[in-house]
Amino acid sequence: MDYIKIQFSNNFDELGSRIEKTIEDMFRSMNPVFSFSECTWKPQMDIYEIPEEIIIIAEIAGVNKENLGIKINSKAVKIYGYRTELPHVENIKYRLAEIRYDKFERTLFLPAPIDTDKVTASYINGFLQIKLAKLPIDKTRKMPITEE
């Protein structure tokens, strides 16, 4: 059975400061090749929640499970990896080239704290699905007041 690498952590690298991200987005709009990070593409993702869990679905077709990693803490999930380029054909003339290759990375900040002991991940037909169990909401209880 193949496994997807999942790494649990209390803290992991941020994508960069908000100012750096804003500058990067501004320059990328003028030149799509411009980037501060070494990642060349960001996969499209959906994140939604149901009462007991948060579910993330990432579209990463063409990425081998061996080139895929996930880092998780109670507040965020980082999905990263590498998609290898198809072999080059001599005398090829591209008419359209939209598929991105090389390194990718996405960090998603979660809408609720999760239980890092209850995480599952599956990869089927080019989609990575991560299920994250939410931590139970703190329940209040009535405390009796005693006389001393």
Blueprint of the fold:
Elements: E1 5-8, H1 18-30, E2 45-50, E3 53-59, E4 68-72, E5 76-83, E6 102-109, E7 114-124, E8 127-134
Parallel strand pairs: 1-4
Antiparallel strand pairs: 2-3, 3-8, 4-5, 5-6, 7-8
Structure, described:
This protein has 148 residues and is mainly beta. 9% of the residues lie in helices and 39% in strands. It contains one helix and eight strands, in the order βαβββββββ. The strands form two sheets. The chain has a four-stranded mixed beta sheet, with no helix packed on it. It has a four-stranded antiparallel beta sheet with strand order 2-3-8-7, with no helix packed on it. A hairpin with a 2-residue loop joins strand 7 and strand 8.
Number of domain units: 1
| Shape-level CATH architecture | Sandwich
Q: What is the distance, rounded to the nearest whole angstrom, between the alpha carbons of the first and last residues?
A: 62 Å
User: Which CATH top level class fits?
Assistant: Mainly Beta
Percent range for helical residues? under 10%
**Which term fits the overall shape?**
elongated
Mean pLDDT: 81
* Proportion of strand residues: 35-45%
Q: Taking Cα atoms only, what radius of gyration do you get, to the nearest Å?
A: 20 Å
Q: Biggest sheet, open or closed, and with what strands and sense?
A: 4 strands, mixed
State the low-pLDDT regions, or none.
13-17
Order of helices and strands: EHEEEEEEE
Predict the CATH topology: Immunoglobulin-like
Quaternary structure of the protein: single chain
According to DSSP, the number of beta strands is 8
Structural class based on helices, strands and sheet pairing = mainly beta
Number of helices: 1
